[in-house]
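A quick aside before the break. I want you to see a complete sequence-to-structure record at least once, exactly as it would be stored in a machine-readable document. Don't worry about memorizing anything.
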Amino acid sequence: MNIPKIIAFYFPQFHEIPENNEWWGKGFTDWKLVKEAKPLYEGHNQPRIPINEDYYNPCEKETLKKQAELAKKYGIEGFMFYHYWFDGKLYLEKPMEVFLSNPDIDISFCVTWANESWTRSWVGKPEIFLQKQLHTNDKKIWESHFNYLLPFFKDPRAIMIEDKPVFLIYQPFLINNSKEMIDFWTELAIKNGLNGLYFVAIKNHDFQTTEFLESYNAIMKFQPREAYTSKGFQEYNAASRFQFLRRLPHIFQLYLTKLNQKLSKHKIYDSKILWKIILENSFVNEFKQTKLKVFESAFFEWDNTPRYKKKSKIFTGLSFEQKKKNLKILMQDAVKNNSPYVFFNAWNEWSESAYLEPDKKYGYAHLDIIKEVTDDLKKELNHL
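That is the input. The structure line, written in tokens, reads:
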């Protein structure tokens, strides 16, 4: 038996792009949101400050190399890069491209297509689009997208399952014609010397329909969002009982989100309940007719105050010992289920306070947990 490898989500929005300067003001990156976050109650851990106040630029090779070395030192085996593609328009692509062009950055990786539209939801205007995601049914666009990603798929550091590069899609139900697109990409992959692609559908919440899943190899449960939107959590929390509204058309959901943001204030949720749900349902495939492989993800903290300010969601309540215990149980479940990977939210999602990178308050404590858990599992398996 092998220790499952931990793959941490990598968020790139810490460098300027012209569009963000236009939409949010000159010099905008997510570091601006992180720095300006204000505590909402006594003891609220905001703002979060990177250790040595290192507000880095991920477009710099040395930054990426340093991050990769630190991650591997503490037992993280790979990064999952978010990739933003809108029918040929790329955003925030430079960190991934710098990584690709520097093979001496020694860490495995995979790519997630973050295929949502961009809106002004942070400021209570989710119905105002900055960049729409159209998912146009056009094979020329599909081929252009594939060709952009092909060098990443063929890179020796690419994470492979069944000898196929892993490719995740953040909101798979939004794609108009999943089967045709995936079949086309599979053909292109084989023509280019690959054995195909390993498609993973990310599950953030219940899907309105599930037919599209037939084209996928696996699902990955995105935490804490998947547990928060689950029926199990709705039993504990009245505010989550309206998740059924996700069955409405997407445009109606945006207006309901706007109304909710106007009426609500920050909400604090107990992470112990979320983790109870995560562990009770770990590696359960609720889509049995599809025979999908299931991948789990973990989190330690979540607090999107930097983005949503007084309207934020805050998941709290875990001691460092509880974080370690939860992760260890999930990793043990992964061993039992012969799962090669456990994903983690996140390496550097600072604007949602979901990060493993060291900070000014706790130093390397979260990375220490990762190392302790992986080291403990190695010892346990060596004694079997």
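Two observations worth writing down. The mean pLDDT is 93. The CA atoms of residues 323 and 331 lie 12 Å apart. We'll return to this after the break.
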